[in-house]
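Narrative of activities, Objective 1.

The group set out to show that a structural description can be obtained from nothing but a protein's sequence at a throughput compatible with the screening campaign. Below is one input-output pair from the validation batch, recorded exactly as produced.
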Amino acid sequence: MERRTIGAAALAVGAVGLGCMPMSWAYSTSRQRGDESLRAVHRALDLGSTLLDTADMYGPFTNELLLGRVLKERRSDAFVSTKVGLLVGEQHIVANGRPGYVRRACDASLRRLQTDVIDLYQLHRADPEVPVEETWGAMAELVRAGKVRALGFCAVGARGGRRSGNRLYDATVRQLQRIQQVFPVSAVEAELSVWSPEALDTLLPWCETRGIGFLAAMPLGNGFLTGTLTPGQGFERDDMRARHPRFTAEMMAANQPIVVGLRRVAARHGDHVTPAQVALAWALAQGRHVIPVPGTKHERWVTENAAAARLRLSPQDLAEVAGLPGAQGSWE
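Output recorded for this entry:
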């Protein structure tokens, strides 16, 4: 697989990563199978999708434990990205950016992942009660201690701010400017997909001009852009899509023209090309610093997603995708 680099340290990863969250968090619990997820991770590494993206809150903790079972055998094949800064309670999630907590959380993640170093340690959310510079400084100490290789920052978009528009990431950029003065930011992770392109306006260019890697989260629109979901199919109560405004039966039906357009582009590249691969190829075409991180727990989809790294969209293809109707349904 094509390799891309993250940050000034030029950390090399496969062009398409693997989001591990669905294996133990946010999607239907009844469909989570440990053995199947393990096979998916092994398959990703076999295909060159070396970036494994997780977080201590996924599960919580079980996602890192699962990856640890693979890393124990194949640490040299993987680029490990995990996150710190969010605590999961019974009915709520809270931020914790206190330096002492960050240090303890890192040690706990290292134990669960069965490794002595984390390749990319990301701040999941800034704690409003703690200056972000203090949290970032504690994370920088972990780099100097040899426990972490590079630092990343997760951007809060529509789901965090409940708003949309060109100024969506202004607050994130201001935070990035502050922490960049403390220690270099190697990567920013934010939602970017055909139906959620807001990061293209300011956040993606900000990263590109500074040599910062961009991890495109949810590049398949939580599964919608794969064309495998049916309007009105319903979701389990613990599936985050059950509460997502774009996944009501009405909005899924209204947004079908987006999938139809992706299918049309895919058909020009052969019967074997899928809408999901076009959506990932579109993300890859947004810049050499972009690494889409589609989430899945199935070996089949890992294989399909990895193959998207070989798909080259023409200027006509990209123009057609850019001309697709905007997504209906939002967090407003």
